[in-house]
Amino acid sequence: MSQSANTSRINNGELLDFFRCRIGNLTSNSVKDYSKALAFLDGFIPCESYSLVTPSATLVREWCIYLFNAGMTKKTVSHYIDIISGLYSSAVGEGLVEATEVFRRVKTDIKDIETLKSGERIREEDYSRLRNLACCSTSLPKDVAMFIDIFVLSILTGCRSFSEIALIKKADIANEPLWVSSILERYCNNNRKYVFPLSQSDRTERQLERDLDAGINAALQSRGIKTFGSLADTARCYWAYAAMKCGLTPSAIYSMLGTYPKAFPEIGIRKQSIPTTADTETILRTIADAFLFNPLNWYAMRLRPRVKIAEIEKRIAMSEHETTRPELFYPSREIAKRIGKKTLLEEIPVISDIVFFKTRVTDIYPLFLKIGDLAWCYRSGNGGGAYAAIPKVSMEQFQRAIGRFTPDYEVGPIGSIKPQPGDIIKIIDGTFAGNEGELLKIMEAGEQGIIYRLRIIDDQGVEWKVRVDARLTRNESSR
């Protein structure tokens, strides 16, 4: 049988199993080092694909960035490449895979890159400071808030130029996604053609760009926001950091931006393919959601072969001081077994290798740096996009189908779960559409149906008490 025929019979998981067998035959001094390198590789790739059987330079480079993000030095990353390259050569000798030069080439790339100094790399506190500023820009002085919002809108739209953001007209708002239009609507004025008050009609493009750069720079500096090169470079760095927290690979980031950000290690990453319109929209929505809201969502992880749920629970408990602990849902059902004259009840998992977990999307990446050798998280875009959140409706349908429920599932007939005073209610249509308020009272109004009395604080800090038809609202506290 030819070697190429042999390689078609194995996948990543089977090749990793071969690596484990080889490690088992090493001396005790080498086992620890080799096992650690293999655990990081195991945590990076899904078992069922074939990417490691015929590895590309992009795959190995992205693994290196994965290692850098786990806090490893250039020396350690190079050492781990040597380890995996040696194990791969053993598989070549057994006829399991074909010989490749990608490990040697990427190791050369690693040696040649300039290690970024700590001050040149974006840190979690840098990202958190900008994110917090974006979420409270309405409380800033108007001139500062406007330039902060233009910078944030550039990030939320996949790094569109600041001039392009500044030239958005009121008539164009309806064409923008909700997370963009909700910010733009703050600046609408009936007497203006453009959304932002920047005297666009009286300025040349160069003048507008110059004033935007000056205004954004001053606003960011006044609030202690770190920059990386030009403002355009800075926007790309923050977007890419958010994208990686949401699960995007470096090559996917390159494909979206057309370049690789300055604040990340450059190891010859190149685009793989241009994302489809649907993939692009999903990516932008996921990142905007994480940047502005970062809500709790349900996700699914796939256990690797022979891994048990108890191992996941134990590893998460061990890493509790370093990662945010997710809520796990591993539903089971009772099965009656007849053993001799006795009938025993046994708990059997509904889906043995799938564990559902609830967390924020930005907590998934650090979580899988700790448990990636035990399981991998499902992603969108054929496995190469952002982490795939499970829609609330789909999660509830699944729970109803199996008859097992998570604590956040509200059980009751349609219409029986009513909001309570103190709940946050969002108005989705009518005069006050888009505003949120505190429910003060529920009033029955005959033929009008149910009316909510809400307390709303507008953007100017003015308090309103309004009556709203319940059918034009959504209970945000129950979402």
Overview of this structure, please?
It is a single chain. With 479 residues, the protein is an alpha+beta fold. Helix content is 42%, strand content 14%. It has 17 helices and 11 strands. The strands form 3 sheets. A 5-stranded antiparallel beta sheet has the order 10-9-8-7-11, with no helix packed on it. Helix 2 runs antiparallel to helix 3. The radius of gyration is 26 Å and the shape is flat. The relative contact order is 0.08. The N terminus is likely disordered.
In brief, what are we looking at here?
The protein has 479 residues and is α+β, with helices and mostly antiparallel strands.
Features:
single chain, 479 residues, alpha+beta, five-stranded antiparallel β-sheet, four-stranded antiparallel β-sheet, 17 helices, 11 strands, 14% strand, flat, disordered N terminus
